[in-house]
Amino acid sequence: MFRRFVLLFCVLAFFPQRIAAESSVVPVEWRDAVLSLIDFPWQSLGYELVFMAPRPGYRAMTFRTDHRIEVYARPADTARAVAYDIAHELGHAIDLAFNTAETRKRWMEVRKIPAETVWFGCSGCSDYTTPAGDFAETFAVLLLGPEQFRSRIAPAPTEAERQILLSFFPKDRLASRSE
After folding, report:
1. What CA–CA distance (Å, rounded) separates 138 from 157?
2. Dist. CA 32–CA 21, nearest whole Å
3. Residue 162, Cβ density class (10 Å: 0-12 exposed, 13-18 middle, ≥19 buried)
4. Is residue 169 classed as helix, strand or coil in its secondary structure?
């Protein structure tokens, strides 16, 4: 137990909310610190979460058929920034697991996105100009706050809008899905 405490202390001393620049492998303690910021039963979505080396042009990516989320943490990233990226990807997993054409249509109405807008963008493209990206960004906002909101299709939701948008992310549906 004492050895574990010393190891944790050493890791936190050298990795205070950041990934070491020379390391392509994220220390378990740092990963756990990132995941502790996500107050959501993400495991019930059935997606594997994997921390990877930085990947130019990408922060994280969801692979629908593999049920896998890859996180490309960068050396200068804070734990909160990485948690936000993960929350965004979890928003995609929720979208893929639970949304229907009808719920997506309602989302676009609430967010004042034109009805003819295509929900998904191209594979591997930035999603910040799509309703799917807005859905994912809004989930990240609901979990971690609006500081890093990056959607460009609609503004960050106001506090009043957040209360309405919460209904698109019911925790009870996720809990029943894992049974």
Report:
1. 7
2. 18
3. middle
4. coil
Report the C-alpha gap between 43 and 90 in whole angstroms.
10
- Within 13 Å of residue 79, how many CA atoms lie on the same side as its CB? 16
170: domain CATH number is 3.40.390
Q: In 10 A of CB 164, how many CB atoms?
A: 12
% of the chain at pLDDT higher than 70 = 80
What mean pLDDT is predicted for residues 99-122? 96
- pLDDT score, position 176: 41
- Listed in sequence order, the residues at least 6 apart from 174 whose beta carbon sits closer than 8 Å to its beta carbon are 41, 44, 45, 94
Residue length of the chain: 179
User: What domain range includes position 137?
Assistant: 2-177
Distant-in-sequence, close-in-space partners of 168: CB < 8 Å, separation ≥ 6: 99, 103, 107, 135
How many domains, in total, are found in the chain?
A: 1
Task: Quote the CA–CA distance of 113 and 74 in Å, as a whole number.
Answer: 32
Q: Are the C-beta atoms of residues 71 and 42 closer than 8 Å to each other? A: no
